Each structure stands twice: as structure tokens, then as C-alpha cells.
Amino acid sequence: MPRFPRSASHLAGIPPSVYSGLAHRLERYSGETYPLHVGDTWMEPPAGCRMEDLRVADFPGMHRYAPVHGLPALLDAIVERERAKTGLALERDHVLVAAGATGGLGAVAGALLEPGDEVLILAPYWPLIEGIVRSFHGTPVAVPVDFDAASAADLVGRLEARHSARTAALYFSTPNNPSGRVLPRKWVEAMVEWARSRDLWILSDEVYEPFIFAGEHTRALPLAPERTFLAQTFSKCYGMAGNRCGYMVGPAAVMAELRKVATHTFYSTPTAAQLAAVRALAGPGDAWAAAACASYAATGRAAAERLGVPAPQGSTFLFFDVAAHLDARGLGPLLEACVDRGLLIAPGPSFGPFPTHVRLCYTAVEPARALRGVEVLAQVLAQFPAR
Ligand SMILES: Cc1ncc(COP(=O)(O)O)c(C=O)c1O
């Protein structure tokens, strides 16, 4: 059937703007702005690991294509790092260097999903996972969980209730974007066990692992290495989001399939970005991440205190219910009032079925400015609902 002028219908469910439909309005604002809607960091990458530190004289060929799989030096550094963390006998074949965790998770979706396959997504969730699943013809199925009140048994019951004959995989992130919660070990173990009992793949997104302020990180990969894909990224741990470099670790046989998808979507990960990642892993990266963690924790705590919500346990976000401040018009007027005072925050529905929640990233601009943005939010909330 002729397609022109229609485009593919499976993309219709993906919103054109994920984090804020109001970003354009901020351009008209002349005062100090607080773009806290996107997850990013104000910190520059570790000294010595920035683009300005890479020279052709030191790295001849740094503007050429990298191998699809990843630069050998980076693959080896990742293997060493993940072996130490997981205790698994990992090799280069278990790793794919990707155009961010976004590119890596896309390669997983492309490698695993048949059209119409369902992916269970623990909600609230990182919004792009929904669009990634849809882009590769899968169907995202949100599994809403109250991270403050749930138990492992409750969690498994919710997964079970949404499981169908089409379910192919389970996705979750810990430390969690957007909730700032670190999933308890019992939860991760219960989800992994349940996924095994249902023959599902597991997509374990652990990109905020370096930023844990309370609680303990639980890795899914060592619990079920035969079915788990770990998503990691240099965007978060070393403040290199613009470099577009991350990686996946998973079962070797399927990683070969991931490489096929990667080859035919982004081909290879930017060479210079990989060189910067090698430098960070070999040198100042961990000290940088520890300093970032301390700074993020302090800002997150101060922001939470001002807003009267629980302090974050990890990641770089606060996600909370503002229902008490809304009338029948929902979030719209509140978000608009924020933009009119220079503040952008993200609406709850981007993260699953949360019509009265908002998310803010308290690391997107330097701490003092982020806290001025939080103050704006506190003042706007105090005026809502407008009468
Ligand atoms: C939970 C989560 N996973 C993955 C990513 C993607 O990171 P990258 O920049 O490596 O694509 C993000 C980015 O914000 C994220 O929050």
C-alpha cells in the first residue's frame, strides 16, 4: 500500500517532546533561568578527560571511525571494571560500546523484540525507554509501583498481573530515574527470580550507580548473567553526556546480535568520546564521581528539605506528587507559572501514569542556582491552586 505522505504509525505513541512542551517559552524569559527538566550535570568532566585534552598528535586517527564493537582499549577497561564489580568472568564479547546507554538499550530492543512483543517497565521510569521500545516495534507496559510503600511480594504480584503471552522483557532502573530511590536488594532479587521463572530477558539500567546517598546498590547481572543486559554510561559517571558514549554488558551470544543493530543504526560510538572515557577510567574518573556524588547529595537534600519531600537516596532527581496544589485543570497552569518565573520542570505523565507528579533534576545547573530554582518552585506551589 502506498505510504506517502504518511510515516510509520508505530511512532504515534511517542510524544514529540519528552521532558517539557514549554521549553520554548523559557526563551522569552529575561531573568535567571532554571532548566531543571532534563537530567544532566553542571560539572565539567574530569580534568585531562575533556575534548580539549585530546590531540591528533597523541591520538592519530581520532577523527576516523572506531570499530563497531568499541575501541579495544576501552573494551578492556570496561571488562576489567565490570569483572571487579560483578565477579563474573567477562570478556570483550560480553560488551558493546554504544552511543550512550540510549544507543545501547536501542540495540538491545532491536536485538530482542519481535513486532508486538511487550516489555514490562517498572514505573515511574526514564521516559526514553518507552520510546525506545516503541521505535523497535515493541509495546511498553508500565507497571506502576509505590516505591515508598511496596514490598517485594507486592512488586512481583504487580509484574505477574501485567505479564502476558507477549511479554519478552522486564526493564527497571536503580538508582531510579525519576524517583531518586535505590531499589532494595530484596526487590531486585525477587524481580530477577520472577523474570527467570517467566523466561524473560532483563534490562537493568544502572547508570546512576555512582550516585548513591543512602542504601546499597544491587546489581542484577551477577544474579542472572544468562538473561541480563546491564546499561551503563559515561554520561552520568563522568559528566560526559554530550560525548554520547556508554555501554551494555550481556550474554555473549546475543551481544553479537546487538552489534548488528548498532552497526546499522549509529555504526560506531564517537572515537574521541571513547578516548575520553578510557582516560577517565584509567585516571581521575572515580575521584571525580565521588566528588560529584557528595555535591549532588548535598544539593538533593537541601532541595528536598525546602520542598518538604523525602531526601533522595540516589540518582539526580526529585519526583513528587503535587496533587494538593492542583485543580481540575491539572498540571498545566502550575508548569506554566513556573516557566513564567524561569523554571522548567518535567511533568509526571512523561514517567508513566503519574498525572499529578513533577520531576526536577537538581544537578542540571550549579547548586546555588538549582536551589534558587527550587525556591521558585516552593513559592509557586504556595500560590497554587490559584483562586
Ligand atoms: C535511567 C537512564 N538510563 C539511561 C540514560 C541514557 O543515558 P545516555 O546519555 O548514556 O544515553 C539516562 C539519561 O538520562 C537515564 O536517566
Commentary on this structure:
This protein is of the alpha/beta class and about 375 residues long. It is about 35% helix and about 15% strand. The chain has helices spanning about 25, 70-85, 100-110, 130-135, 150-160, 185-195, 235, 250-265, 270-280, 285-305, 330-340, 365-385; strands at about 35, 95-100, 120-125, 140-145, 165-175, 200-205, 230-235, 245-250, 315-320, 345, 345, 355-360. The protein has a 7-stranded mixed sheet with strand order 2-8-7-6-5-3-4, with helices on both faces. The protein has a 3-stranded antiparallel sheet with strand order 9-12-11, covered by helices on one side. A two-stranded parallel sheet has the order 1-10. It is globular and about 60 Å long. The structure holds pyridoxal-5'-phosphate (PLP). Pyridoxal-5'-phosphate binds near residues 100, 173, 205, 231 and 233. Pyridoxal-5'-phosphate (PLP) binds near residues 39, 100 and 233.
List keywords for this structure.
single chain, 387 residues, alpha/beta, three-stranded antiparallel sheet, 36% helix, binds pyridoxal-5'-phosphate
- Our measurement of the CA-to-CA distance between the termini, rounded to an integer number of angstroms, reads 54 Å
Question: Largest beta sheet: what is the strand line-up?
Answer: 2-8-7-6-5-3-4
Helical fraction: 25-40%
What amount of the residues lies in strands?
A: 5-15%
Unreliable stretches covering 5 or more consecutive residues: none
Ligand identities: pyridoxal-5'-phosphate
Largest sheet, described in full?
A: 7 strands, mixed
Number of strands: 12
